[in-house]
Amino acid sequence: MVLGTAAVWTTVGVGLDLSGAIALATVAMWLLPRRERFGTAGGAVVIALFVTALWSLAEAAATASASVSFAPSLAESSRNLGWLFVIYRLFASDGRHASLAPIRPVIVALAFVEVLHLGVDYVLSRLTMEGEILRIAFEFNVMFRLLVTVGGLVLVHNLYAGAPREARAALRWPAGGLAALWAFDLNLYTIAYLAGNWPHEIAALRGLSSGALAACVAIGAFGNRDDVRLRPSRAVTFQTFSLLVIGVYLVSMVAVAQWLSYAGGNFARLIELVFLTLATAGALVVLPSRRVRGWLKVTLAKHFFQHRYDYREEWLRFTRTIGSGGDQSAPLAERVVQSVADVFDSPAGLLLTPGDQGELTLAARWNWPEIEVPADALGAPSLAHFERSGYIADLDDVRAGRSIGPGMDREDVPAWLLDHPRAWAMIPLIHYERLVGMVVLARPQLARKFDWEDFDLLRVIGQQVASYLAENSSQEALAESARFDDFHRRIAFVMHDIKNLASQFSLLARNAELHAEKPAFRADMLVTLRNSSDKLNALLQRLSRYGTGAVEKLEQVPAGQVLSVVMERFRASPQVTVAQSCDLTVMAHRHSLEQVLMHLVQNAIDASRPDVPVFLSLTREGASARFDVLDSGCGMTADFVRTRLFKPFVSTKSGGFGIGAFEARELVRAMRGRLEVESREGFGSRFVVRLPLAAAPALNDTPARPDQKVA
C-alpha cells in the first residue's frame, strides 16, 4: 500500500514538472520576439524562463529515477540566479544609479549565498555521510535555500511596492508569478526543516508553481507596455533592509543553536535553550530601539542615496503637520515646532516669538515640559544678530566654542539653553528679512552634525513656517481690530443712552426738591434719584476710560503707601501676604497703580485655592521698582499667555468682559513701565510690574501715549 501511494505521488510529480516545463518553454519562445514589452529586462526574462524549464525537466528526471544527483540542485540554483538577474534588470530599467544603490548589494549578497550553497552542495554530494552528519548537512542545505527564498520574496515586494502607480500594471503579473514560485518554496523548505526530512508529497506539487509563473508572465506580456521605471522609496528600502537584517539574524541564531546542540554533549539541549532565550531577549530589546532604527536610517541615507532627504516625503509630511486643523488638532504654534522637529526625529521643541519689547518669549512647548524658560528668553541685541544672518545654531558646537555665527559671540546664545543638556539646535524663522520666531529643538536619539543639506532644508522650512506665523498674526490683528470697532460702536450707543438717563434723573431730582408736597415722599425720592444718578455717572466715567489706557499726569508716588492701600483693600482675605517691602518712590499715577495691583491680586486669589497664600512684594531692581504678585494656583499655558491673556473681550470667567488684564497692561505702559508674566500650567503664575523710580534721570512727567513702546 505504501509503495502504491509513493508511485502515485511520483507520477503526479513527474506529470506536473513536465507540464510546467512545457508551459515555461512555450512562453519563453512566444516572448522572444516580444521581449521589449518588459523593457530592458525582456532578454533576462526569456533566459530565466528557459532556465526554469530546464530545472523542471531536471526535477522530473530525478523524481522518475528516484535517484539522488547534483543536477536538480544545480538547475535550481541557476533558476534562482536567473530570476535575481531579472529583478536587477527591472530595477536598472530607469538607468539611474541612485535607484540601484539600495538594491545592488542585496542582489549581490543573495547571489553570493546561492553560489556558496552550490559549492557546498557539490562537495557534500561527493562525500559519503550517515547518521547525524547527514542530518546536519540536510539542515544546512535547507537553511541556504530558505535564506535565498526569503530574500527573493523581499525583492519582489520591493519591486512592486516601490514602483509608481502607472508602472504597477506592467509588474503586477510577473511579480505575482515570482511570488507564487518562491512562496511555494518557502513553505516546502520550512516543512522540510521542521520535519527533518524531505516532504516528497508536497515536493511533487512544485510543478504547479512553475505553471503559475508561466501563466503570470504570459498575461503580463499581453498588450503594449511602457518601459518600467522604478523609484524605490526610502521607506521601502528601510523596510527591505530591516527584513533582511531580521532574516539574517534568525538564520544565524538557528545555525548557532544547531551547532551548540551538536557540540554540547550531555548538556546540548540545555545550552541550546539558554542561547535561544538570551538571543530572543536581546533581539526584543535592541531591534525596537529608536536609536537602532535612527542609526539604520542614517546609514542607509548616507551610503545608498544621493541626497540625505526624500524631499517629496518631507514636504508632504510638513504640509500634513502644519495644515492639520480642526478642534482636535494642536495649536498652530505647537504644529510649527513639530513640523521642524520631524525633520531630525527630534522628540521635543520650543517656539519663541517676539514680545512687546522686542525680546523673544515662550510661545509654545512641544513634548518638553521640564525645561525652564525665563520671561526674557532671548534679548533684543542677540535677536538682531540672528535676524541679520539667519544663523542656525548647533548648540553642541557653541558649547565647545567651535562654531559661532558671523558677527556673533557666545553671549548671543542664552545661557539657559547652553546649560540644558537636551537643547540641541536653534532655527530662526525669518519672513521678509524680519525674524518672526525661533524654534529650539531637543536632542534626538541619534544626534549628528549638520551639513549643507540640513541647512538648506531648514532655511526653506523656516521661511515657510515664518510665513504661516506672519499670516496668523495678521489674521489675529484684523480680528482684534474688528472686535474693537464693534466694541466702540456698542459703547457709543450705551454712553449716549446713559447720558440721557442721567440728565433726566438729575432734572427729576431738582423738580422734586422744588415741587414735592409731602416731605417723606420728597426725601425718599431724593435719596433714590441721587443714588441712581451717582451710579450712572460713575458707570459712564468707567466706560469712557476702557480701551484708552490713558492716565493723568505722572507724579512722584510712594510705592510703599500704594502697597499698604492694596493690603487694606484685601484685609478680609488672609491669603494675601506681603513677602517683602521697601521705601521707594516711583513716577506713576497713584489711582492707576492701585487699580493695576488690585486687579492682579484679585486674579491671583481667584486662581488659587482658599488655603494657598498669595504673595505681594516690592523690591528695587536697578533704576526701577518691581512689584511681584505670586500665586501657586492653576497657572496658564504658554499659548494662553501669548494669544489670550492680554486680548480684550476674551475671558475665562463667567460673565467677565475680558478687558481687565488688557487694561492693566495698557495702564502700566502709560506709566512708562512694563508688565511681565511667568506662568506654568499646574504650578502657578508670577506677574511683575516694573515702574521707573522717581530718581531715574531719563524720566520726565509727561505720560506715555497708549501706543508708545518702551525700548
Task: Please explain how this structure is put together.
There is one protein chain. The protein has helices at residues 2-31, 42-65, 71-91, 97-100, 104-125, 131-161, 168-195, 200-203, 206-221, 234-263, 268-286, 290-304, 311-323, 332-341, 380-389, 395-400, 415-418, 452-515, 519-545, 559-569, 590-607, 638-643, 660-670; strands at 349-354, 360-366, 393-394, 423-431, 434-442, 555-558, 576-580, 585-588, 614-621, 624-631, 674-680, 684-692. It is of the alpha+beta class. It has 5 domains: 2-231, Rhopdopsin 7-helix transmembrane proteins, CATH 1.20.1070; 233-306, no CATH class; 321-469, 2-Layer Sandwich (Beta-Lactamase); 478-545; 555-692, Heat Shock Protein 90. A hairpin with a 2-residue loop joins β4 (423-431) and β5 (434-442). α1 (2-31) packs antiparallel against α2 (42-65), α6 runs antiparallel to α7 and α7 (168-195) packs antiparallel against α9 (206-221). Residues 94-98, 224-231 and 697-711 have low confidence and may be disordered. It is an enzyme of class 2 (transferase).
